[in-house]
Amino acid sequence: MYYSHFGLSEAPFKITPNTEFFFSGGNRGPILEALIYAITHGEGIVKVTGEVGSGKTMLCTMLQARLPRHIETVYLAHPNVSPEEILHAIAFELQLGPARGAARLEVMRSLQDYLLKRHAEGKRVVVFVEESQSMPLATLEEIRLLSNLETRNDKLLQIVLFGQPELDDNLRRSNIRQLRERIVHSFRLEPLHAGEIREYVMFRLRAAGYRGPDLFSAAVINYMAHASAGLTRRVNLIADKALLAAFSENTHTIKLKHVQAAVRDSEFSQHQTLRLKPQLAWGAALMLAGAAIGAVVYALIQHGSGDDSPAAAGAKSTLVAPDQPAAAAAPTVPAVAKTSAAAGSAVSMGKFPPRPPGNEPGLVEQRLAATQEWLANAAQTTYSIQLMGIDNEEQMKNHLNDIAKFVEVNRVFLYRTIANRKASLTVLYGSFSDRRAAQDALEKLPPSLKANRPILRTVRGIRTELEQHRSS
Predict the structure, then answer these.
(1) pLDDT tens digits, one per residue of 411-445
(2) CATH superfamily assigned to domain 339-471
(3) What pTM was computed for the model?
Protein backbone atom coordinates (compact mmCIF):
# COMPACT_ATOMS: atom_id res chain seq x y z
CA MET A 1 0.00 0.00 0.00
CA TYR A 2 0.97 3.67 0.33
CA TYR A 3 2.42 3.50 3.86
CA SER A 4 6.13 3.45 2.99
CA HIS A 5 5.56 5.95 0.16
CA PHE A 6 4.51 8.57 2.72
CA GLY A 7 6.76 7.36 5.54
CA LEU A 8 3.90 5.91 7.59
CA SER A 9 4.23 3.11 10.12
CA GLU A 10 0.54 2.19 10.05
CA ALA A 11 -2.77 3.09 8.43
CA PRO A 12 -3.70 6.65 9.46
CA PHE A 13 -7.35 6.65 8.44
CA LYS A 14 -8.90 3.39 9.59
CA ILE A 15 -12.54 3.82 10.54
CA THR A 16 -12.31 1.33 13.41
CA PRO A 17 -11.84 3.17 16.74
CA ASN A 18 -8.22 3.29 17.90
CA THR A 19 -7.58 5.40 21.00
CA GLU A 20 -4.11 6.33 19.70
CA PHE A 21 -5.88 8.32 16.98
CA PHE A 22 -8.38 10.16 19.18
CA PHE A 23 -8.60 13.78 18.04
CA SER A 24 -9.41 16.16 20.87
CA GLY A 25 -10.24 19.08 18.57
CA GLY A 26 -13.74 19.95 17.44
CA ASN A 27 -14.75 20.00 21.13
CA ARG A 28 -14.19 16.21 21.39
CA GLY A 29 -11.60 16.57 24.14
CA PRO A 30 -13.75 18.81 26.39
CA ILE A 31 -16.76 16.51 25.92
CA LEU A 32 -14.64 13.51 26.93
CA GLU A 33 -13.45 15.30 30.08
CA ALA A 34 -17.01 16.35 30.93
CA LEU A 35 -18.24 12.76 30.53
CA ILE A 36 -15.49 11.46 32.82
CA TYR A 37 -16.45 14.06 35.42
CA ALA A 38 -20.18 13.23 35.19
CA ILE A 39 -19.59 9.48 35.57
CA THR A 40 -17.07 9.70 38.38
CA HIS A 41 -19.38 12.03 40.35
CA GLY A 42 -22.50 9.89 40.02
CA GLU A 43 -24.51 12.24 37.84
CA GLY A 44 -27.16 9.74 36.68
CA ILE A 45 -28.20 9.57 33.00
CA VAL A 46 -26.07 11.30 30.37
CA LYS A 47 -26.84 11.64 26.65
CA VAL A 48 -24.45 12.04 23.70
CA THR A 49 -25.84 12.59 20.20
CA GLY A 50 -24.27 13.06 16.80
CA GLU A 51 -24.75 12.24 13.15
CA VAL A 52 -23.70 8.88 11.72
CA GLY A 53 -19.90 8.93 11.47
CA SER A 54 -19.36 11.89 13.80
CA GLY A 55 -17.18 9.91 16.23
CA LYS A 56 -19.58 8.60 18.90
CA THR A 57 -18.05 5.10 18.96
CA MET A 58 -14.52 6.52 19.21
CA LEU A 59 -15.64 8.74 22.09
CA CYS A 60 -17.24 5.76 23.84
CA THR A 61 -14.05 3.72 23.37
CA MET A 62 -11.92 6.55 24.76
CA LEU A 63 -14.28 6.93 27.69
CA GLN A 64 -13.91 3.27 28.63
CA ALA A 65 -10.12 3.55 28.37
CA ARG A 66 -9.90 6.75 30.44
CA LEU A 67 -12.25 5.98 33.30
CA PRO A 68 -10.63 5.15 36.68
CA ARG A 69 -10.21 1.49 37.60
CA HIS A 70 -12.87 1.60 40.30
CA ILE A 71 -15.54 2.16 37.63
CA GLU A 72 -16.89 -1.02 36.03
CA THR A 73 -18.33 -0.65 32.51
CA VAL A 74 -21.09 -2.49 30.67
CA TYR A 75 -21.22 -2.00 26.89
CA LEU A 76 -24.44 -2.64 24.97
CA ALA A 77 -23.85 -2.37 21.24
CA HIS A 78 -27.26 -3.66 20.05
CA PRO A 79 -29.99 -2.09 22.20
CA ASN A 80 -32.95 -3.03 19.97
CA VAL A 81 -34.25 -5.32 22.69
CA SER A 82 -37.37 -5.62 24.82
CA PRO A 83 -37.58 -4.28 28.39
CA GLU A 84 -37.14 -7.80 29.79
CA GLU A 85 -34.13 -8.46 27.58
CA ILE A 86 -32.33 -5.26 28.59
CA LEU A 87 -32.24 -6.41 32.21
CA HIS A 88 -30.92 -9.83 31.21
CA ALA A 89 -28.33 -8.20 28.91
CA ILE A 90 -26.94 -6.06 31.74
CA ALA A 91 -26.95 -9.02 34.15
CA PHE A 92 -25.15 -11.16 31.58
CA GLU A 93 -22.44 -8.52 31.01
CA LEU A 94 -21.92 -8.27 34.77
CA GLN A 95 -21.80 -12.09 34.96
CA LEU A 96 -24.57 -12.24 37.57
CA GLY A 97 -25.74 -15.60 36.24
CA PRO A 98 -29.56 -15.49 36.42
CA ALA A 99 -31.30 -18.11 34.29
CA ARG A 100 -32.42 -16.84 30.89
CA GLY A 101 -36.04 -17.49 31.81
CA ALA A 102 -35.78 -15.83 35.24
CA ALA A 103 -38.54 -13.42 36.14
CA ARG A 104 -37.94 -9.67 35.86
CA LEU A 105 -38.22 -9.20 39.64
CA GLU A 106 -35.56 -11.86 40.24
CA VAL A 107 -33.13 -10.28 37.78
CA MET A 108 -33.76 -6.81 39.21
CA ARG A 109 -33.11 -8.03 42.77
CA SER A 110 -29.90 -9.75 41.66
CA LEU A 111 -28.75 -6.57 39.92
CA GLN A 112 -29.57 -4.37 42.91
CA ASP A 113 -27.67 -6.65 45.31
CA TYR A 114 -24.64 -6.55 43.02
CA LEU A 115 -24.73 -2.76 42.74
CA LEU A 116 -25.05 -2.34 46.50
CA LYS A 117 -22.04 -4.60 47.00
CA ARG A 118 -20.00 -2.58 44.51
CA HIS A 119 -21.06 0.68 46.20
CA ALA A 120 -19.94 -0.64 49.59
CA GLU A 121 -16.53 -1.39 48.01
CA GLY A 122 -16.27 2.20 46.77
CA LYS A 123 -16.88 1.21 43.14
CA ARG A 124 -19.30 2.39 40.47
CA VAL A 125 -21.01 0.69 37.53
CA VAL A 126 -21.81 2.49 34.26
CA VAL A 127 -23.77 1.21 31.27
CA PHE A 128 -22.91 2.52 27.78
CA VAL A 129 -25.77 2.14 25.31
CA GLU A 130 -24.79 2.56 21.64
CA GLU A 131 -27.31 3.35 18.91
CA SER A 132 -29.89 4.14 21.56
CA GLN A 133 -32.12 5.89 19.01
CA SER A 134 -33.11 2.36 17.95
CA MET A 135 -34.17 1.36 21.46
CA PRO A 136 -37.95 0.79 21.82
CA LEU A 137 -39.67 3.39 23.97
CA ALA A 138 -40.68 0.73 26.47
CA THR A 139 -37.03 -0.24 26.86
CA LEU A 140 -36.07 3.40 27.33
CA GLU A 141 -38.64 3.52 30.11
CA GLU A 142 -36.97 0.47 31.68
CA ILE A 143 -33.69 2.41 31.55
CA ARG A 144 -35.38 5.15 33.55
CA LEU A 145 -36.49 2.66 36.18
CA LEU A 146 -32.94 1.35 36.43
CA SER A 147 -31.80 4.90 37.19
CA ASN A 148 -34.01 4.75 40.30
CA LEU A 149 -31.60 2.27 41.89
CA GLU A 150 -29.84 4.44 44.45
CA THR A 151 -28.73 4.85 48.03
CA ARG A 152 -29.57 7.85 50.14
CA ASN A 153 -26.77 9.89 48.54
CA ASP A 154 -25.67 8.13 45.35
CA LYS A 155 -26.93 6.58 42.17
CA LEU A 156 -26.04 2.90 42.02
CA LEU A 157 -26.03 2.74 38.22
CA GLN A 158 -24.74 5.31 35.75
CA ILE A 159 -26.17 5.28 32.22
CA VAL A 160 -24.72 6.95 29.11
CA LEU A 161 -26.91 6.96 25.98
CA PHE A 162 -25.10 7.35 22.64
CA GLY A 163 -27.38 7.97 19.69
CA GLN A 164 -28.14 9.70 16.44
CA PRO A 165 -30.28 12.89 16.39
CA GLU A 166 -33.39 10.71 16.20
CA LEU A 167 -32.83 9.96 19.89
CA ASP A 168 -33.72 13.58 20.67
CA ASP A 169 -36.89 13.18 18.62
CA ASN A 170 -37.84 10.09 20.63
CA LEU A 171 -37.20 11.85 23.93
CA ARG A 172 -39.51 14.72 22.97
CA ARG A 173 -42.52 12.39 23.04
CA SER A 174 -44.83 13.08 25.94
CA ASN A 175 -44.97 9.42 27.03
CA ILE A 176 -41.20 9.39 27.65
CA ARG A 177 -40.90 12.77 29.37
CA GLN A 178 -40.01 11.18 32.71
CA LEU A 179 -36.80 9.80 31.20
CA ARG A 180 -36.05 13.11 29.49
CA GLU A 181 -36.21 14.91 32.82
CA ARG A 182 -33.77 12.41 34.36
CA ILE A 183 -31.04 13.29 31.84
CA VAL A 184 -28.62 15.53 33.72
CA HIS A 185 -26.14 16.23 30.90
CA SER A 186 -26.56 16.33 27.13
CA PHE A 187 -23.68 16.61 24.67
CA ARG A 188 -23.69 16.85 20.89
CA LEU A 189 -20.83 16.01 18.53
CA GLU A 190 -20.96 18.71 15.87
CA PRO A 191 -19.44 18.26 12.40
CA LEU A 192 -15.89 19.56 11.99
CA HIS A 193 -15.33 22.76 10.03
CA ALA A 194 -12.53 23.11 7.46
CA GLY A 195 -9.89 24.34 9.92
CA GLU A 196 -10.59 21.46 12.28
CA ILE A 197 -10.51 18.96 9.40
CA ARG A 198 -7.06 20.23 8.45
CA GLU A 199 -5.87 19.70 12.04
CA TYR A 200 -7.61 16.31 12.16
CA VAL A 201 -6.01 14.81 9.05
CA MET A 202 -2.54 16.06 10.00
CA PHE A 203 -2.94 14.80 13.56
CA ARG A 204 -3.79 11.32 12.32
CA LEU A 205 -0.92 11.36 9.81
CA ARG A 206 1.52 12.37 12.55
CA ALA A 207 0.12 9.67 14.85
CA ALA A 208 0.80 7.16 12.07
CA GLY A 209 4.43 8.25 11.75
CA TYR A 210 4.35 10.95 9.07
CA ARG A 211 7.00 13.65 9.61
CA GLY A 212 6.83 15.78 6.45
CA PRO A 213 5.04 19.05 5.65
CA ASP A 214 1.28 19.36 5.26
CA LEU A 215 -0.01 17.12 2.48
CA PHE A 216 -3.42 18.74 2.07
CA SER A 217 -3.66 22.29 0.72
CA ALA A 218 -6.35 24.74 1.80
CA ALA A 219 -8.31 24.16 -1.45
CA VAL A 220 -8.19 20.38 -0.95
CA ILE A 221 -9.30 20.69 2.69
CA ASN A 222 -12.20 22.96 1.75
CA TYR A 223 -13.37 20.43 -0.83
CA MET A 224 -13.07 17.63 1.71
CA ALA A 225 -15.06 19.66 4.24
CA HIS A 226 -17.90 20.15 1.78
CA ALA A 227 -17.91 16.56 0.51
CA SER A 228 -17.70 14.99 3.97
CA ALA A 229 -20.15 17.38 5.66
CA GLY A 230 -17.57 17.51 8.46
CA LEU A 231 -18.13 13.89 9.54
CA THR A 232 -14.92 12.20 10.65
CA ARG A 233 -15.76 8.80 9.18
CA ARG A 234 -16.22 10.36 5.75
CA VAL A 235 -13.03 12.38 6.16
CA ASN A 236 -11.18 9.14 6.91
CA LEU A 237 -12.53 7.44 3.80
CA ILE A 238 -11.76 10.41 1.54
CA ALA A 239 -8.24 10.95 2.92
CA ASP A 240 -7.39 7.24 2.65
CA LYS A 241 -8.49 7.03 -0.97
CA ALA A 242 -6.79 10.34 -1.85
CA LEU A 243 -3.46 9.07 -0.49
CA LEU A 244 -3.90 5.89 -2.50
CA ALA A 245 -4.61 7.92 -5.65
CA ALA A 246 -1.48 10.04 -5.12
CA PHE A 247 0.56 6.88 -4.50
CA SER A 248 -0.70 5.36 -7.76
CA GLU A 249 0.68 8.42 -9.59
CA ASN A 250 3.97 8.23 -7.66
CA THR A 251 3.55 11.71 -6.22
CA HIS A 252 3.65 13.05 -2.68
CA THR A 253 1.37 15.98 -3.49
CA ILE A 254 -2.31 15.49 -2.77
CA LYS A 255 -4.12 17.31 -5.54
CA LEU A 256 -7.74 18.30 -5.86
CA LYS A 257 -8.27 15.65 -8.53
CA HIS A 258 -7.18 12.94 -6.07
CA VAL A 259 -9.78 14.03 -3.53
CA GLN A 260 -12.47 14.42 -6.17
CA ALA A 261 -11.80 10.87 -7.34
CA ALA A 262 -11.95 9.67 -3.73
CA VAL A 263 -15.33 11.34 -3.23
CA ARG A 264 -16.71 9.88 -6.46
CA ASP A 265 -15.62 6.44 -5.27
CA SER A 266 -17.48 6.84 -1.95
CA GLU A 267 -21.01 5.66 -1.28
CA PHE A 268 -21.96 8.95 0.37
CA SER A 269 -20.94 11.14 -2.60
CA GLN A 270 -24.58 11.79 -3.51
CA HIS A 271 -25.72 12.31 0.09
CA GLN A 272 -23.31 14.86 1.55
CA THR A 273 -25.81 17.24 3.10
CA LEU A 274 -26.54 16.85 6.80
CA ARG A 275 -30.18 16.70 7.85
CA LEU A 276 -31.21 20.16 9.02
CA LYS A 277 -34.24 20.78 11.13
CA PRO A 278 -36.82 22.87 9.22
CA GLN A 279 -36.77 25.63 11.84
CA LEU A 280 -33.02 26.04 11.33
CA ALA A 281 -33.18 26.53 7.56
CA TRP A 282 -33.91 30.27 7.73
CA GLY A 283 -31.21 30.66 10.39
CA ALA A 284 -28.64 29.04 8.12
CA ALA A 285 -29.66 31.29 5.24
CA LEU A 286 -29.36 34.38 7.41
CA MET A 287 -25.93 33.29 8.59
CA LEU A 288 -24.76 32.92 4.98
CA ALA A 289 -26.17 36.32 4.10
CA GLY A 290 -24.49 37.85 7.13
CA ALA A 291 -21.19 36.30 6.16
CA ALA A 292 -21.48 37.77 2.64
CA ILE A 293 -22.28 41.25 4.00
CA GLY A 294 -19.38 40.96 6.43
CA ALA A 295 -17.03 40.11 3.58
CA VAL A 296 -18.14 43.19 1.62
CA VAL A 297 -17.67 45.45 4.65
CA TYR A 298 -14.26 43.97 5.28
CA ALA A 299 -13.23 44.54 1.66
CA LEU A 300 -14.37 48.16 1.83
CA ILE A 301 -12.34 48.76 5.00
CA GLN A 302 -9.27 47.04 3.62
CA HIS A 303 -9.30 48.58 0.13
CA GLY A 304 -11.34 51.74 0.51
CA SER A 305 -10.12 55.24 1.24
CA GLY A 306 -7.02 54.14 3.10
CA ASP A 307 -8.16 55.97 6.21
CA ASP A 308 -5.81 55.18 9.11
CA SER A 309 -7.67 57.34 11.61
CA PRO A 310 -8.51 55.98 15.06
CA ALA A 311 -12.11 55.48 13.91
CA ALA A 312 -10.99 53.33 10.98
CA ALA A 313 -8.65 51.39 13.21
CA GLY A 314 -11.52 50.77 15.60
CA ALA A 315 -13.67 49.51 12.73
CA LYS A 316 -10.98 47.01 11.73
CA SER A 317 -10.60 45.71 15.26
CA THR A 318 -14.30 44.79 15.44
CA LEU A 319 -14.10 42.37 12.49
CA VAL A 320 -13.66 39.21 14.52
CA ALA A 321 -15.38 35.84 14.52
CA PRO A 322 -18.74 36.10 16.33
CA ASP A 323 -17.76 33.49 18.95
CA GLN A 324 -14.33 34.96 19.65
CA PRO A 325 -13.53 37.78 22.08
CA ALA A 326 -12.37 40.97 20.42
CA ALA A 327 -8.97 40.67 22.08
CA ALA A 328 -8.35 37.44 20.18
CA ALA A 329 -8.79 39.03 16.76
CA ALA A 330 -5.08 39.47 16.16
CA PRO A 331 -2.22 38.70 18.53
CA THR A 332 -0.26 41.84 19.38
CA VAL A 333 3.48 41.64 19.03
CA PRO A 334 5.63 44.28 20.76
CA ALA A 335 7.97 46.26 18.59
CA VAL A 336 11.55 45.00 18.59
CA ALA A 337 14.45 47.38 18.28
CA LYS A 338 16.52 47.20 15.09
CA THR A 339 13.97 44.96 13.38
CA SER A 340 15.35 45.45 9.88
CA ALA A 341 18.93 44.66 10.84
CA ALA A 342 17.93 41.60 12.87
CA ALA A 343 15.70 40.32 10.12
CA GLY A 344 18.44 40.90 7.56
CA SER A 345 20.93 38.82 9.53
CA ALA A 346 18.30 36.09 9.87
CA VAL A 347 17.68 36.08 6.11
CA SER A 348 21.38 35.51 5.53
CA MET A 349 21.07 32.18 7.35
CA GLY A 350 19.02 30.59 4.53
CA LYS A 351 18.00 30.86 0.91
CA PHE A 352 14.68 32.65 1.40
CA PRO A 353 14.45 36.06 -0.33
CA PRO A 354 14.49 39.10 1.97
CA ARG A 355 11.34 41.10 2.51
CA PRO A 356 10.84 43.80 -0.17
CA PRO A 357 11.64 47.28 1.16
CA GLY A 358 8.69 49.33 2.22
CA ASN A 359 6.47 46.40 3.26
CA GLU A 360 5.41 46.09 6.88
CA PRO A 361 6.90 43.02 8.59
CA GLY A 362 4.55 40.04 8.84
CA LEU A 363 4.34 37.58 11.71
CA VAL A 364 7.25 35.49 10.39
CA GLU A 365 9.58 38.50 10.23
CA GLN A 366 8.42 39.73 13.64
CA ARG A 367 9.18 36.42 15.29
CA LEU A 368 12.52 36.12 13.50
CA ALA A 369 13.54 39.51 14.87
CA ALA A 370 12.26 38.73 18.37
CA THR A 371 14.20 35.47 18.33
CA GLN A 372 17.43 37.26 17.39
CA GLU A 373 17.05 39.48 20.44
CA TRP A 374 16.13 36.53 22.69
CA LEU A 375 19.12 34.47 21.59
CA ALA A 376 21.42 37.44 22.10
CA ASN A 377 20.32 37.98 25.71
CA ALA A 378 19.23 34.59 27.10
CA ALA A 379 21.47 32.51 29.36
CA GLN A 380 23.17 29.47 27.82
CA THR A 381 21.18 27.12 30.05
CA THR A 382 17.79 28.57 29.07
CA TYR A 383 15.40 25.96 27.69
CA SER A 384 12.77 26.16 24.97
CA ILE A 385 10.44 23.65 23.27
CA GLN A 386 11.10 22.89 19.60
CA LEU A 387 7.65 22.43 18.03
CA MET A 388 8.51 21.79 14.39
CA GLY A 389 10.69 22.58 11.41
CA ILE A 390 9.51 23.35 7.89
CA ASP A 391 11.15 24.37 4.60
CA ASN A 392 8.23 26.32 3.11
CA GLU A 393 7.81 29.92 4.26
CA GLU A 394 4.22 30.22 3.05
CA GLN A 395 3.25 27.13 5.02
CA MET A 396 5.12 28.53 8.01
CA LYS A 397 2.81 31.56 8.00
CA ASN A 398 -0.18 29.22 8.23
CA HIS A 399 1.49 27.23 11.01
CA LEU A 400 2.21 30.35 13.05
CA ASN A 401 -1.39 31.47 12.73
CA ASP A 402 -2.53 28.04 13.91
CA ILE A 403 -0.05 27.97 16.80
CA ALA A 404 -1.26 31.40 17.90
CA LYS A 405 -4.69 29.86 18.55
CA PHE A 406 -3.26 27.75 21.37
CA VAL A 407 -0.35 29.67 22.89
CA GLU A 408 0.70 33.30 23.31
CA VAL A 409 2.42 34.26 20.06
CA ASN A 410 4.91 36.50 21.89
CA ARG A 411 6.38 33.32 23.38
CA VAL A 412 6.92 31.73 19.96
CA PHE A 413 10.44 31.97 18.54
CA LEU A 414 11.57 31.30 14.99
CA TYR A 415 14.98 30.97 13.37
CA ARG A 416 16.42 29.96 10.02
CA THR A 417 18.69 26.97 9.71
CA ILE A 418 19.61 24.15 7.32
CA ALA A 419 17.94 20.73 7.49
CA ASN A 420 18.61 17.92 5.01
CA ARG A 421 20.68 20.38 2.96
CA LYS A 422 17.69 22.67 2.53
CA ALA A 423 16.87 26.06 4.03
CA SER A 424 14.47 25.50 6.89
CA LEU A 425 12.61 27.39 9.60
CA THR A 426 12.49 26.05 13.16
CA VAL A 427 9.69 26.99 15.56
CA LEU A 428 10.29 27.17 19.32
CA TYR A 429 7.89 27.86 22.14
CA GLY A 430 8.70 29.48 25.48
CA SER A 431 11.77 30.49 27.44
CA PHE A 432 12.35 28.47 30.63
CA SER A 433 15.02 28.83 33.29
CA ASP A 434 15.33 25.08 33.93
CA ARG A 435 14.53 21.74 32.31
CA ARG A 436 11.71 20.81 34.70
CA ALA A 437 9.73 23.95 33.88
CA ALA A 438 10.19 23.29 30.15
CA GLN A 439 9.13 19.65 30.53
CA ASP A 440 6.01 20.67 32.46
CA ALA A 441 5.09 23.14 29.73
CA LEU A 442 5.66 20.50 27.04
CA GLU A 443 3.29 18.07 28.77
CA LYS A 444 0.58 20.75 28.96
CA LEU A 445 0.69 21.54 25.24
CA PRO A 446 -2.56 20.82 23.36
CA PRO A 447 -2.61 17.62 21.27
CA SER A 448 -2.35 19.52 17.99
CA LEU A 449 1.03 20.97 19.08
CA LYS A 450 2.22 17.59 20.33
CA ALA A 451 1.51 15.97 16.97
CA ASN A 452 5.05 16.64 15.71
CA ARG A 453 6.60 15.19 18.88
CA PRO A 454 8.22 18.36 20.25
CA ILE A 455 11.59 18.18 22.03
CA LEU A 456 13.48 20.34 24.51
CA ARG A 457 16.32 22.56 23.30
CA THR A 458 18.81 24.78 25.10
CA VAL A 459 19.97 28.21 23.98
CA ARG A 460 23.52 26.81 23.95
CA GLY A 461 22.50 24.09 21.49
CA ILE A 462 20.63 26.51 19.25
CA ARG A 463 23.57 28.94 19.14
CA THR A 464 25.93 26.09 18.29
CA GLU A 465 23.63 24.99 15.48
CA LEU A 466 23.50 28.51 14.03
CA GLU A 467 27.27 28.96 14.26
CA GLN A 468 27.83 25.68 12.42
CA HIS A 469 25.61 26.76 9.56
CA ARG A 470 27.24 30.18 9.36
CA SER A 471 30.65 28.59 8.95
CA SER A 472 29.47 26.01 6.39
Answers:
(1) 999 998 887 677 888 999 999 988 888 988 998 88
(2) Sporulation related repeat (3.30.70.1070)
(3) 0.58
For domain 27-189, give the CATH number.
3.40.50.300
- How confident is the model over 235-257, as pLDDT tens digits? 999 999 999 999 999 998 899 99
4-17+192-270 folds as Helicase, Ruva Protein; domain 3 (1.10.8)
All residues at 6 or more sequence positions from 64 whose CB lies less than 8 Å from its CB, including other chains: 73, 75, 128
In angstroms, the CA 310 to CA 312 distance is 5
Q: In terms of C-beta density within 10 A (0-12 exposed, 13-18 middle, 19 or more buried), how is residue 254 classed?
A: buried
Q: Within 10 A of 232 (CB to CB), how many other CB atoms are there?
A: 26
